[in-house]
C-alpha cells in the first residue's frame, strides 16, 4: 500500500528542528514541510517604547511565536530590563508560544493550555488577580490579527494596548515548492494548515494546478478551521490543541 503524503503548510521554524515534523517522524509518519509565510517586522519604535516602560503595563499577551520573536528582537537591540517584565502577569496561547517565551525571554507564561485567543481570554478573566489589572496589557500582534483579545478584555473592563509588530506575506517560493511536490509525489493526501494565511495563499495556487483528488485537510485552531471552510476545502479534522501531540492524533485518525 502506497504511503500517504502528509504536507505541513506552516511558517518555517527558526531552529533546524521542527517539533511537528519530529513528532510525526517518531510515530513513523513521513511529512513534508513547505513554508507558506514570510514575516516582516514593523513598528519597532512603538513596541520598543512600550517595552522600555514595564511600569505602564500589567503584563504581555502573546498569541503566536512570532510575537515572541518581535519582542526578543527589541531585547537584542536595546537590552531593556526583562526582569521587570518577569514579575508581571504574562500570558500565551499554546505550548509552542509559551516555550519560546520561556526560552528567549525567560518568562513564565500563564494560559499555555488555551488553544485559542477566546480560551485565553477566559483564562485571563478567571484569574484571581483579575481585579488588580489596572494598567493595560501589552498585546503585540500581526496586521491580520482579529480583535478577539482587545474586544473581549475591554468589554470586561480591562485595558489592552495593541501594537501591530509584524505583517505576513506569501512565501515567494510557495508556488514553485508546491508544483515540485505535486510533480514528484502527486497531490498530498493530507494537508495540515497552521494559519488562515496559509490557507489563503496555498489555495490561490493549488486551485490552478491540475488536481486529480481532493486532499484531506486538518486545521490548527478555530480561525484556520473557518478559513478552510470558507475556501470550500475538504476539512476532515481540527487539532484539539495547537501542539505536536494533537496534530499527530489528528493525522493518525486519517491514515
From TrEMBL:
GO cellular component: cytosol
GO biological process: heme B biosynthetic process; protoporphyrinogen IX biosynthetic process; uroporphyrinogen III biosynthetic process
Role summary: Catalyzes cyclization of the linear tetrapyrrole, hydroxymethylbilane, to the macrocyclic uroporphyrinogen III, the branch point for the various sub-pathways leading to the wide diversity of porphyrins. Porphyrins act as cofactors for a multitude of enzymes that perform a variety of processes within the cell such as methionine synthesis (vitamin B12) or oxygen transport (heme).
Domain Tetrapyrrole biosynthesis uroporphyrinogen III synthase per the UniProt entry, residue ranges: 20-248
Catalytic reaction(s) noted: hydroxymethylbilane = uroporphyrinogen III + H2O
Enzyme Commission identifier(s): 4.2.1.75
The protein's name in its UniProt record: Uroporphyrinogen-III synthase
Top-level lineage group: Eukaryota
Pathway annotation from the record: Porphyrin-containing compound metabolism; protoporphyrin-IX biosynthesis; coproporphyrinogen-III from 5-aminolevulinate: step 3/4
Family: Belongs to the uroporphyrinogen-III synthase family.
This protein's encoding gene: Uros_1
GO MF assignments: uroporphyrinogen-III synthase activity
